[in-house]
Automatic annotation (TrEMBL):
<feature type="domain" description="BIG2">
    <location>
        <begin position="1033"/>
        <end position="1115"/>
    </location>
</feature>
<dbReference type="InterPro" id="IPR006047">
    <property type="entry name" value="GH13_cat_dom"/>
</dbReference>
<keyword id="KW-0326">Glycosidase</keyword>
<dbReference type="InterPro" id="IPR031965">
    <property type="entry name" value="CBM26"/>
</dbReference>
<keyword id="KW-0378">Hydrolase</keyword>
<comment type="similarity">
    <text>Belongs to the glycosyl hydrolase 13 family.</text>
</comment>
<dbReference type="Pfam" id="PF16738">
    <property type="entry name" value="CBM26"/>
</dbReference>
<dbReference type="InterPro" id="IPR017853">
    <property type="entry name" value="GH"/>
</dbReference>
<keyword id="KW-0812">Transmembrane</keyword>
<dbReference type="Pfam" id="PF02368">
    <property type="entry name" value="Big_2"/>
</dbReference>
<keyword id="KW-1133">Transmembrane helix</keyword>
<feature type="domain" description="Carbohydrate binding module family 25">
    <location>
        <begin position="843"/>
        <end position="927"/>
    </location>
</feature>
<feature type="domain" description="Glycosyl hydrolase family 13 catalytic">
    <location>
        <begin position="85"/>
        <end position="441"/>
    </location>
</feature>
<keyword id="KW-0119">Carbohydrate metabolism</keyword>
<feature type="transmembrane region" description="Helical">
    <location>
        <begin position="22"/>
        <end position="45"/>
    </location>
</feature>
<dbReference type="GO" id="GO:0043169">
    <property type="term" value="F:cation binding"/>
</dbReference>
<dbReference type="GO" id="GO:2001070">
    <property type="term" value="F:starch binding"/>
</dbReference>
Length: 1244
């Protein structure tokens, strides 16, 4: 048998199992948000550049949203869209190696670089060689960043910074499905079995080396997503904890400069709603700030919903998402091998329902190259290059160029071991033909395509890219000619008339009247015909904080391929500058002034360039306040304000006031000089987070945004749902008012004067104590000054809603802990600390609240079941129970007898329309369940304040000795009072103190009054403190115990000895004895004096108390020869077999080898207690006819016999043709007895 640690090293050596194995977005943030909001409207706007005041937190901010990056990208002519641009797979390159080659990579035309996984790993085990060593990076040991191949986290950061300087984006390979197979190598923080799927129970073993269920049926999606690929530890992707930790890793990688991810084994992770239990994994990890995310979803499995994966990746990314086009790669390689590159054969990218712009294409990948059961390594570099000419010239897909190790592949070994892990591979990635194709692709971004063979020859393929606008400078064609020179004259073409120059070999191609009139291509070459500009692109940029509150700020000036670069400012400064130079502005300007920076220069053709940027110097003492006023439409029951920052953020990263539909506006009669009746103040934190990005608001009635009449501004009407475009929210940068007209409303700057808030004060102040066992609520009030601002709506928030939640000033305790409650209005705020103690009483009934506006106050039904003790309950009869009107626009229903168990429920209007929480159902427990906009709360919307009438303290006056303490309890009447939070106070803290929970501690002799207050009512008790008792010191300590004499004792290895410590005097104050051993490797001692012999030798055992000590010497002696094996014996036992008649018993025992070895405790076990049982002393009782294995265990030694139970005590003959005595008679009888009826020769 191979030890577990060695078995783990053998697993996963082949990255994949055998056989099948494993329209441009208008505005990314708009479509992503519309998905989350169920149709809410957002606008199509261009995201501004990130500023220093609003530091980049996403890939988009650092790249397409950054003027310096854009200047670099444009100067190298790289593609804007990551889902289109060419990707260099820098396989096994270190971060330092990538950084060193960045200029070459940019000049070679690659939009992105894909790295190896960055997570912590076990190994590599064999230095820098590739063979049997490369796959360790695909078997993480944890979620730290950095490993022996890619380098340290600091080196990764330096690499991404260098990439962004060159306009290049970084895609990190990420292994998010599994860890290493070696449990011992897993990071300690991950060593929890709950973080992984069970080793066994779903899939069996694929071979003799399997240590976990890895025999996956790829037509069974449950097995694909739950079993252990190659016995690697499969992450429990149904666990929210695992999802949160993986998101943390990905978010940290983005913070280190990563722009996108390639998710290894993505199809081995279930989709969110693929199975009955919702999986939070993808919905949790994907909103990580990445710009582009794609998954390894190898095609060909039955039941695989391939299009759903790129839809998820795209939803949470700002620059697209996709799947691997493995089928197309197979087709390309087959075509290259037989030189049959027929246009019909290669036309479709074979996405199996996935859009072309959601595919990552390749000629080969690291899997097809490196795995021993794949074959692309046999293709020559020339064949790979021919294939690249095809995939990288296509309009669809993001082509990935896999960089092979140096001198490897083709006619050479798969791994020639010329280069090492961390080195750059061969130079094919920068071959002139490859570079020309890359630059052709970049130049043709957005163009259509047409594939045709060269005059009907299937060994020559033309990929035409065109616009049909009469301009030959933006058309072109790549010709991949695998065999024989070709004359292209006379062929039809989609290219505009003109002359096209081959960027590789200098050939020329002429087009007239959509016909090629002249041009030829050479055998075995790639020709790239288009009119590339020989002048490097010039760019100017000025970047910095668009607004600033300091006296000065710095602006970075960028000049790429620019001559005579100069700057000037409206502050009067001017001069020449170099790329990357910074200037300081603001010192000469007062606050609330705009400063314009103008840059000028010429490109290499002498063309003039001019760029201007404006920066605003703001008053640092000004309080920014944005207020939205509205007149509630007559048809709306409620009006919500959904506020968001328009910064092109991906779904999950949107800065918003709340999930759709936003926050309920506050009714205020006659607001804004009578022009409105609803008010909402934009939270100050949203204004701060927005920086220079615009803030927008959408008014709505809480319903679905795609339904006409539910929101303003409304979306444009379209007949085709696929053409639906969400309308932009209303821009707000001050006080504005909407007139309430849903169809043609006005949004105008408010004429009313806003009242400035001077202060907000919460009462009671300081610390508020809430006892869960005593109702768990407290009433807070906020006083706003001046009096003219007293009517302004107060926003209440809790710092930790896991501890306490707050609504309209009523605080509801949730669990033990501390939370900060904040009241905010008009840019001012106040806080109190809430201390929640006690245990909540058992909930007997549960009341469910739901907005009446959804289905109507008289037509809302609750369909539910109570899951008692976790077991699924019985659903109510459809449509459920009718809910009744509650208050504040809610309906409610009280479910009796829930006793704190989980309630699972959905809502309906009784006519087929349901709210089932996105097919996940709602699940919650507690006295109150409040559902609104898909979220669940516990504070009842109908708050009735019940005043406190009295407070009493149990027990009356009392005495305490100095240093002693006593827990007091206060009773608040009535029992249903709202503010039941009790505060405690001592009249003299020098005599006695009292903490927030009522615990009194005596300090010194004297008398103090303890006061308990709740809801404005108080009561008192007196505490008298008496002097403390004099300490009695320990004079001596002595050790005694069985066998202890003259300070010595002897025990055998493995034996024990109980010691006692006698303290003199017996009434000494300190009675706490500490035991220690001088050598735990020889003898250990517990905190109670229990000694255990470990190995032969001598150790000193010491007892210490009150500064006094005593010790004895314990000698540990050899217990005799070691036990080598045990053997079961007993009446009738022969050759490890025993036959018993039904209902008979026999006493078994064990013998030791050697005979004088100590056996110790023996445990007994039966493999089938229905056939026979065995008690703890070895007595076996035959129960029913059949066979069972009886096993005895002593320490790590085992012995077993096979017991046959028959009716009469003799061997059973179930088959007349298999009499007793023939070969395998007993085995055949056993198979029949246990019910085995068939099987397979291969063991399946």
């Amino acid at each position: 048998m191979v030890p577990l640690s060695e078995t783990g090293q053998q697993l996963g050596k082949t990255k994949r199992s055998g056989g099948r194995g494993l329209i441009a977005k208008a505005v990314a943030s708009v479509s992503a948000l519309a998905t989350l909001a169920g149709g809410m409207a957002l606008g199509m706007v261009t995201a501004p550049a990130a500023s220093a005041a609003n530091a980049p937190t996403t890939s988009y901010d650092r790249t397409l949203g950054n003027a310096q990056f854009e200047a670099a990208r444009e100067s190298y002519g790289l593609s804007k869209e990551m889902d289109y641009g060419a990707i260099l797979h820098a396989w096994m390159w270190s971060a330092n190696t990538i950084k060193a080659h960045m200029e070459e990579i940019a000049n070679a035309g690659y939009t992105s670089i894909q790295t190896v996984p960055m997570s912590t790993i076990k190994g590599p085990e064999h230095g820098g060689v590739f063979t049997e060593n490369w796959y360790y990076v695909y078997q993480p040991s944890g979620t730290g960043i950095g490993n022996k191949v890619i380098g340290t986290e600091a080196e990764i950061k330096a690499m991404t910074e260098e990439a962004h300087k060159h306009g290049i984006r970084i895609i990190a390979d990420a292994v998010i499905n599994h860890f290493t197979a070696d449990w011992n190598a897993v990071e300690s923080s991950w060593k929890d079995s709950n973080n992984f799927h069970p080793d066994w129970g779903i899939c069996g073993a694929s071979d003799e080396y399997s240590i976990r269920g890895d025999a996956i049926n790829y037509d069974n999606r449950w097995q694909v997503t739950q079993c252990h690929l190659l016995s690697l530890l499969d992450l429990n992707t149904q666990s929210q904890t695992v999802a949160d930790r993986m998101k943390d890793y990905l978010t940290r990688a983005v913070a280190d400069g990563v722009d996108g991810f390639r998710y290894d084994a993505a199809k081995h992770i279930e989709l969110p709603n693929e199975f009955a239990q919702y999986s939070p994994y993808y919905d949790t990890i994907l909103p990580n700030g990445a710009q582009y995310q794609y998954g390894e979803v190898l095609q060909g499995d039955q039941g695989l919903n391939a299009p759903a994966y790129p839809a998820l990746f795209d939803k949470y990314s700002t620059n697209g998402g996709g799947n691997t086009a493995s089928n197309y790669g197979n087709t390309i390689r087959a075509a290259l091998q037989d030189k049959n590159i027929n246009s019909g054969r290669l036309g479709s990218l074979q996405g199996t329902g996935v859009n072309d712009n959601q595919l990552v294409t390749w000629v080969e990948s690291h899997d097809t190259y490196a795995n021993t059961n794949e074959y692309s390594s046999q293709l020559t570099a020339w064949q790979i290059r021919m294939g690249w000419g095809i995939v990288a010239s296509r309009a669809g897909g993001a082509p990935l160029f896999f960089n092979r190790p140096q001198g490897s592949g083709g006619n050479n070994p798969r791994f020639a071991e010329i280069s090492s892990l961390g080195d750059a591979g061969d130079d094919e990635w920068k071959h002139p033909e490859v570079v020309a194709v890359n630059k052709f692709r970049n130049a043709m971004e957005g163009n259509a395509e047409y594939l045709r063979n060269c005059n009907g020859n299937n060994n020559c393929l033309m990929i035409e890219r065109y616009k049909t606008d009469g301009n030959s400078n933006n058309d072109g064609v790549t010709v991949v000619n695998m065999d024989g020179d070709k004359n292209l004259a006379g062929m039809d073409t989609m290219l505009d008339d003109g002359e096209y120059v081959d960027q590789v070999y200098g050939n020329k191609l002429t087009v007239s009247g959509k016909k090629i009139t002249s041009g030829s291509v050479n055998s075995g070459k790639i020709h790239v015909f288009y009119n590339a500009s020989n002048t490097p692109r010039a760019s100017l940029a000025a970047t910095g904080a668009k607004s600033f509150k300091t006296d000065t700020t710095q602006v970075t000036l960028t000049a790429r391929n620019v001559n005579n670069a100069r700057y000037s400012t409206t502050e009067g400064d001017a001069g020449s500058f170099t790329d990357g130079q910074t200037i300081t502005i603001g010192a000469k300007s007062p606050v609330n002034t705009q400063i314009t920076v103008t840059l000028t220069g010429t490109d290499q053709d002498g063309k003039s360039l001019t760029v201007t940027e404006t920066f605003t110097k703001k008053d640092p003492n000004a309080v920014v306040s944005y207020t939205a006023y509205a007149k509630k439409p007559v048809a709306w029951d409620k009006i919500y304000a959904y506020v968001y920052v328009d910064n092109n953020a991906a779904a999950g990263s949107v800065i918003e006031n709340a999930a759709w539909p936003g926050v309920l506006m506050t009714a205020e009669s006659g607001a804004c000089d009578g022009t409105a009746d609803q008010v909402y103040e934009i939270p100050e934190d949203i204004i701060d987070k927005a920086g220079d990005d615009p803030i927008r608001v959408i008014f709505n009635n809480g319903g679905a945004g795609e339904i006409p009449g539910n929101k303003f501004p409304a979306d444009s009407a379209v007949t085709d749902p696929d053409d639906h475009v969400d309308a932009a929210g209303l821009l707000i940068d001050g006080s504005y008012v909407w007139d309430g007209n849903v169809t043609s409303g006005k949004w105008e700057e408010a004429s009313c004067l806003a009242v400035t808030v001077d202060s907000v004060t919460i009462s009671p102040a300081g610390t508020v104590n809430i006892d869960l066992a005593d109702g768990g609520t407290a009433q807070l009030t906020a006083t706003v000054a001046p009096a003219a601002a007293a009517g302004k709506p107060v926003q209440w928030t809790s710092s930790d809603e896991r501890v306490a939640v707050v609504k309209n000033g009523v605080v509801q305790g949730v669990a033990k802990g501390t939370a900060t409650i904040t009241a905010s209005v008009g840019g001012k705020s106040d806080t109190v600390t809430v201390n929640v103690t006690g245990e909540a009483p058992v909930v007997h009934d549960t009341t469910v609240y739901y907005p009446a506006s959804k289905f109507g106050a008289n037509s809302t039904y609750l369909h539910y079941r109570v899951n008692k003790g976790g077991a699924a309950g019985t659903w109510t009869t459809v449509p459920g129970v009718k809910m009744e009107a509650a208050c504040d626009g809610y309906v409610k229903y009280t479910i009796a007898g829930t006793e704190g168990d989980e309630v699972e429920f959905v809502f309906t209007n009784g006519s087929g329309t349901w709210d089932n929480n996105g097919e996940k159902n709602y699940k919650a427990s507690g006295a109150n369940i409040v559902v609104e906009n898909g979220t669940i709360g516990s504070v009842a919307p109908c708050v009735t304040v019940v005043p406190v009438t009295s407070v009493s303290i149990a027990g009356g006056d009392f005495e305490l000795k100095e240093g002693a303490s006593k827990q007091l309890s206060a009773t608040v009447a009535p029992a249903n009072a709202t503010d039941r939070a009790v505060s405690w106070k001592s009249s003299d803290a020098s005599v006695a103190t009292v903490d927030a929970s009522g615990n009194v501690t005596a300090v010194k002799a004297g008398t103090a009054t303890i006061t308990a207050t709740a809801g404005g009512k108080s009561t008192t008790v007196n505490v008298t403190v008496t002097p403390e008792i004099v300490d009695i010191p320990v004079q001596s300590v002595a050790i005694s115990g069985t066998g202890v004499a003259n300070g010595k004792a002897s025990i055998n290895v493995g034996a024990g000895l109980n010691l006692n410590a006698a303290i003199t005097p017996s009434n000494a104050t300190d009675q706490n004895v500490t035991w220690i051993s001088s050598d735990d490797s020889i003898a250990t001692v517990s905190s109670t004096g229990a000694v255990r012999g470990v190995k032969v030798g001598m150790a000193v055992i010491m007892a210490t108390v009150g500064g006094k000590s005593a010790s004895i010497i314990v000698t540990v002696e050899d217990a005799g020869p070691a036990l080598q094996s045990i053997q079961i014996t007993g009446s009738g036992v022969s050759s490890n077999k025993l036959t018993l008649a039904q209902n008979n018993s026999v006493q078994l025992s064990v013998t030791a080898t050697p005979a004088n070895a100590q056996i110790g405790a023996v445990t007994w076990d039966s493999s089938d207690t229905a056939v026979a049982t065995v008690d703890g002393n070895g007595k076996v009782t035959a129960k029913a006819e059949g066979m069972a294995v009886i096993t005895a265990t002593a320490g790590d030694k085992h012995s077993s016999i096979v017991l046959t139970v028959s009716k009469n005590g003799s061997s059973s003959d179930r088959f007349s043709d298999v009499p007793a005595g023939v070969a395998f008679h007993d085995e055949i009888e056993w198979l029949a007895a246990v019910g085995v009826t068939n099987g397979y020769s291969d063991g399946r």
